[in-house]
Write a structure and sequence with these properties.
With 555 residues, this protein is α+β, with helices and mostly antiparallel strands. The protein has helices at 41-53, 66-73, 99-107, 134-137, 154-163, 167-178, 182-199, 232-235, 258-276, 312-327, 329-344, 358-370, 380-385, 418-430, 473-496, 507-511, 531-543, and strands spanning 4-6, 55-60, 79-87, 89-96, 126-128, 207-211, 225-230, 280-286, 293-298, 303-309, 394-395, 398-399, 437-438, 447-448. Helices cover 37% and strands 12% of the residues. The structure holds cytidine-5'-triphosphate (CTP) and magnesium ion. Cytidine-5'-triphosphate binds at residues 211-213, 219, 223-224, 226, 314, 317-318, 357-359, 459, 467.
Length: 555
């Protein structure tokens, strides 16, 4: 399911001016100087969560009169904003100004009677709207204004890249087309809020928090939705009530380990999602993984969801990436292009396996930017030295302290272009001593590998862990070969100068199928692509863009 979003032009007091909100809070307009105040990650999370709690999702009839629809809903209170999107039918996301409007709306509706089937009467914030008198309600307006929020097709992307003015422009355009939109971000927080409602039946004080690429500003349209059940509040002792000689605790069931507790909780929540959760389908309990999880599809939003518990360290690494993404406008542009490049060459995959992941690629870009002279990004250790008392954070014995105040971090004096950085990225990793060295963003220095895994990227907070432990030797070799070839292609492009462009150039050229990995090559040995071979290959791909291997669909 790939939702198509529709934004409606809606004058009047209930209509929100979505244009004011084009950018997710805290996000940075890339390619221009950052003029948007940089919000703290925790502020963004809090604001988004609160917005989501005032929001409902409505499955609508295909033809609906928007004005009447909004008028009907505003009986329950003023609407802050709304948008429509297409998934399995037409859906409306409606954010009220006040939370009690949601209760008012819920108070006036009932669970359906289904004839031969029986309904499970779970009252969520996901509704179905029917027309009482369809013929009189059909919209007089011929069509509504629509905004497509899908990632661009391969053809469209190549067009954008082809007509861009420079390689820098190509990287920034790719970022603009692939980054999560305001509506998509809202839908992600709303989905977490729905799951929280279900989990709250057992754990009333729980929070379901999104993490990973949905919140770290590196998410591409179509990426999965990682969320975790935060039960921390549940265990907190209310100090002011504990005066005197007594200490009261909950009577609880004990199990042999934290892991077993996690498995039991996730097992129950998985059952609940399966049996009660409207729109939650394909529930898989993957409880024996290192980090046990429940995987499912949220059908109305189209998100593939991974639910874990108490994953606060992963939320910290999301926050760290958020900070890195906000520090310099080149960071996200470079990461998005590298992620697209890896996807185009099947270095990454939606299927778990021996491939490199987007998270690892992001770490590699950050490390590379720390290694520039002067550095574009600070090391994690230097962010730790900028921290004050309130930033101090120890999770499960791991020191996760770093400054949360973006304004404390000095901007880099490095003025290298994205074009240069992309080429240098490929060169750097094309020649990196993967067999000997580890990537470590905490110190920003190459270090001896502590074990023999083909790719070693230290987990920034759980420093004994390797985030790319799964990557095989052949995958890292493929990465190196492709990086060298891409550096070579960019170098040729540069040498040829601004001559009339008769073929995909710059970023578009490195996203095309590789000569080193093409099936026609029987030898595994790397071969520099002859310009004629590359030209023919590029031309054939260009003329047959529908078969272009650049899959824009992330998962
Ligand atoms: N994570 C981690 N160690 C790993 C894998 C993942 O700490 N070996 C954490 C990271 O915080 C990561 C999050 O789990 O951001 C989600 O993992 P994943 O979905 O694989 O990566 P994303 O960053 O969300 O990227 P994608 O867009 O591919 O989903
Ligand atoms: Mg993810």
């Amino acid at each position: 399911l790939r939702p198509v979003f529709r934004r409606l032009n809606c004058p009047g007091p209930v209509a929100a001016d979505l244009s004011r909100e084009e950018q997710p809070p805290g996000s940075v307009e890339t390619g221009s100087e950052d003029k948007i105040p940089k919000k703290r990650f925790s502020e963004v999370q809090k604001e988004r969560r609160e917005q989501a709690q005032r929001t409902v999702l409505i499955h609508c009839p295909n033809k609906i009169n928007e004005r009447k629809f909004l008028k009907y809903l505003s009986q329950h209170g003023p609407i802050n904003n709304h948008f429509f999107y297409e998934g399995f039918g037409l859906y409306a996301v409606v954010e009220f100004c006040r939370k009690d409007s949601v209760y008012s709306l819920q108070g006036g509706i009932h669970t359906p009677s289904l004839g031969t089937e029986a309904a499970i009467p779970f009252k969520s914030r996901f509704f179905n709207l029917k027309l009482k008198n369809p013929s009189s309600q059909i919209s007089e307006q011929p069509c509504v204004e629509t905004t497509n929020q899908l990632p661009p097709s391969s053809k469209k992307l190549f067009e954008i890249l082809y007509y861009a003015e420079s390689i820098d422009d190509q990287l920034n355009s790719l970022l603009r087309k692939f980054q999560l939109t305001e509506e998509n971000t809202k839908l992600r927080y709303l989905t977490c809020s729905f799951i929280e409602d279900i989990a709250a039946a057992y754990f009333p004080d729980c929070t379901v928090r999104p993490f990973g690429s949905s919140v770290n500003t590196f998410g591409k349209l179509g990426c999965d939705l990682d969320m975790f059940l935060d039960l921390d509040e549940f265990g907190k002792v209310s100090t002011n009530k504990n005066v005197g000689n007594f200490l009261m605790e909950y009577q609880v069931k004990n199990v042999p380990s934290e892991r077993i507790a996690t498995q039991k909780i996730l097992s129950v929540i998985g059952e609940c999602l399966d049996h009660l959760g409207p729109g939650c389908v394909g529930i898989q309990k993957i409880l024996n993984a290192r980090c046990p999880l429940v995987r499912f599809s949220h059908q109305p939003s189209g998100f593939q969801c991974d639910l874990t518990t108490n994953n606060r360290i992963a939320l910290k690494s999301s926050e760290l990436l958020y900070i890195y993404g906000a520090l310099d406008s080149r960071v996200r542009a470079l990461v998005f292009s590298v992620r697209c490049w890896a996807r185009a060459h099947s270095l990454t995959s939606s299927i778990p396996g021996a491939w490199i992941t987007n998270f690892s690629l992001t770490m590699m870009v950050i490390f590379f930017l720390q290694r520039r002279s002067p550095p574009i990004l600070p090391t994690l250790d230097s962010l730790k030295t900028l921290a004050d008392a309130e930033d101090k954070c120890i999770i499960e014995g791991n020191n996760c302290t770093f400054t949360h105040d973006l304004n404390k971090i000095k901007p880099s004096g490095n003025t290298e272009t994205l074009e240069l950085l992309l080429k240098e990225f490929f060169e750097y990793y094309g020649n990196f001593a993967f067999s000997k060295n580890s990537i470590n963003i905490r110190q920003g220095k190459e270090q001896n590998k502590p074990d023999s895994s083909p790719l070693h990227i230290q987990n920034p907070f759980e420093t004994s862990l390797n985030i790319s432990k799964n990557v095989s030797q052949s995958q890292i070799q493929k990465f190196v070969d492709l990086a060298r070839e891409s550096a070579w292609i960019l170098e040729q492009d540069n040498k040829n100068g601004p001559s009339p462009r008769i073929r995909p150039w710059g970023l578009a050229a490195v996203l095309l199928p590789s000569v080193v990995n093409s099936k026609s090559l029987t030898t595994k040995k790397r071969k520099k692509p002859g310009s004629e071979t590359v030209k023919n290959l590029l031309e054939s791909i260009k003329s047959n863009s529908t078969e272009n291997p650049l899959s824009t669909n992330e998962k």
